[in-house]
Amino acid sequence: MSPASFPYRLIATDLDGTLLRGDDTVSQRTRDALAAATAAGAAHIIVTGRAVPWTRHILDDLGYEGLAVCGQGAQVYHAGERRLLTSVTLDRQLAGLALAKLEAEIGPLALAASRDGLDGEVLVGAGYRVQEGPLPVVTFEDPSELWSAPINKLYIQHPGLDDDALTKAARATIGGLVNVVMAGAGIVEILPLGLSKATGLSLAARRLGLRASDTIAFGDMPNDIPMFGWAAHGVAMANAHDELKAVAHEITASNDNDGIAITLEHLLG
Fold first, then answer.
1. pLDDT at 2
2. Is pLDDT of 232 > 90?
3. At 112, is the secondary structure helix, strand, or coil?
4. Where would I find the H helices in the chain?
């Protein structure tokens, strides 16, 4: 198949709820469709909210050696060379101010943080509900530990507000200081102001000589909205959050029903 037969030069895929099925695996059909698209001349970039340490084992399983955008756009990682090309950290003084302001408005929060670097730990404080799975975390009791080393982002949870309500309240209260995104069930994050998946994807694409107009993007959560705004074509999974579906150009099948593969197979003809 010639490169001209596939209409996009770049395929950007989120991981959780998109490329990954519910059991955290990638189906053979999806692997085959991505392989066919890359054989037809397209590049594939994984764009995930996960930081590099929580992404690397998935990339290894896929035999992925290209660029990956991790940490909601904070990190551009070269999987083949196992090195960070770019990394953006959250100003800890500003983050502390934002947290104090938010807690003064809505009450105490349960906190976690993702430390910067190839082996950055995820710190989890009292009351923070961690999703079950193999990903390692380090617990902390002294709040000062949060600020003892550079971090890419903070995770926040509230005992009485659901994800949508917490995100709305945080944006209204501290949206001028930091970026607030909802990345999944129980995952509301505080990021550097202006940082998004689109930021990291644009940097990675530029390294490949590609542009927004070359790009088709797949996602499932509100944190994928900036990526859809940047890409020429945004495809939401059937299981996607309503906010993402509202801005998508197209809705495909769910992550458990090979939604990415179905769309790519159609484009491949």
1. 45
2. yes
3. strand
4. 28-39, 52-62, 92-106, 163-174, 197-207, 225-230, 242-247, 259-268
User: Apex CA 191: angle with CA 129 and CA 24, to 5°?
Assistant: 50
Cα distances (Å, whole numbers) of residue 123 to 16, 142, 210, 219: 20, 11, 36, 26
Nearest to 32 by CA among 252, 232, 227, 260: 260
Nearest-angstrom CA–CA distance, 16 and 14: 6
Q: Are 236 and 250 in contact (CB under 8 A)?
A: yes
Give the span between the Cα atoms of 112 and 23, in whole angstroms. 24
Q: Is the pLDDT of residue 247 over 60?
A: yes
- The pTM of this model reads 0.92
Residue 141 buriedness (CB in 10 A; 0-12 / 13-18 / 19+)? exposed
Report residue 244 CA to chain centroid gap: 14
What's the token pair of residue 46? 């994984």
Give the Å distances, CA to CA, from 71 to 77, 90, 114, 192, 224: 10, 11, 8, 11, 12
How far apart are the C-alpha atoms of 204 and 210, rounded to whole Å? 9
Question: Long-range contacts made by residues 84-87, C-beta under 8 angstroms, separation at least 24?
Answer: 84/52, 84/117, 84/118, 85/207, 86/200, 86/203, 87/116, 87/117, 87/152
Position of tokens 């197209």?
A: 250
Question: Coil, strand, or helix at residue 178?
Answer: strand
**Distance linking the first and last C-alpha atoms of the chain:** 10
State the DSSP H helix or E strand holding residue 67, giving kind and residue range, or none if neither: strand 67-70
Separation between Cα atoms, residue 54 and residue 119, nearest integer Å: 9
Range 158-179 average pLDDT: 97
What are the angstrom distances between the C-alpha of 161 and each of 112, 148, 154, 166, 183?
Answer: 17, 29, 17, 6, 16
